[in-house]
Amino acid sequence: MTPLLPVPVGEHAAWERQPGESARSFEAFRIYSNVRPSERSLGRAAEIVLKSRHQMLVWSAREHWVVRAELWDHEQSRVANQARLEAIKRLSKEPVEIGAMMLAEVRARIPTAAKSLERSPHGLAAWAEVAAKLIRDGLDSANARSGPGWSPRCSSSLSRKPPSSQSTPAMASPEG
Predict the structure, then answer these.
(1) Choosing a second label site near 77 at 20 to 30 A (CA), which of 10, 83, 102, 126?
(2) How far apart are CA 69 and CA 42, in angstroms?
């Protein structure tokens, strides 16, 4: 009877060398499993390792290459997805941190900026508005970015341009 899961479960991951697997067979498996799935075949692997297709078929059947390669593909996807989630977390924190720094700058300048406020009362207000928007967008987008299919190119609160009726307060000094 064929076992439900032909790959040994234990100390070795399916894509690692299995107990009893020869070094040559394992090296051929590594080459086979590292070929892009859409191009993966025993014939393609045989060309790369300079072995006969028949030898590849024997090793593949005995060592369950197809299932092991699929498990390797899933592991690669899992690692890539984890890296994307970590990037999403970092990207979500950045606008909030920038906004917090801007608000701190506004708070620090309020007591000393009375004369500047007389000349340009909108300078600090514009900074505060942009800072609050960065924080709000950063917090809001953390939820939106966690959905399937999101990529950093889809949205970024830092890439949005302010409405044309406003100046760009991030570029101007809050003192005027």
Answers:
(1) 10
(2) 12
From residue 80, give the alpha-carbon distance in Å to each of 53, 55, 76.
32, 33, 6
**Residue carrying the six token digits 């000349």:** 119
For the segment 55-94, what is each residue's pLDDT rounded down to a tens digit? 999 999 999 999 999 999 999 999 999 999 888 888 778 7
- Closest residue by Cα to residue 41 from 24, 65, 58: 65
Cβ atoms 104, 70 nearer than 8 A: no
Question: Which residue ranges of the chain lie beneath pLDDT 70?
Answer: 1-10, 110-121, 124, 141-176
- DSSP string of 127-169, one letter each residue: HHHHHHHHHHHHHHHHHHTTSTT--TTT--TTTPPPPTTS--T
157 closest CA partner among 85, 88, 82, 84: 88
Q: Do 106 and 131 meet the contact criterion of CB atoms below 8 Å apart?
A: yes
Q: What is the dihedral of CA 78, 80, 84, 87, to 10 degrees?
A: 120
This model's pTM is above 0.70: no
Instruction: Give me 165's structure tokens.
Output: 């009726």
Q: Helix 42-49 to helix 53-63 angle, to the nearest 10 degrees?
A: 120
Backbone φ and ψ of 24, nearest 5°: -65, -45
What is the distance between the alpha carbons of residues 133 and 102, in angstroms, rounded to a whole number? 11
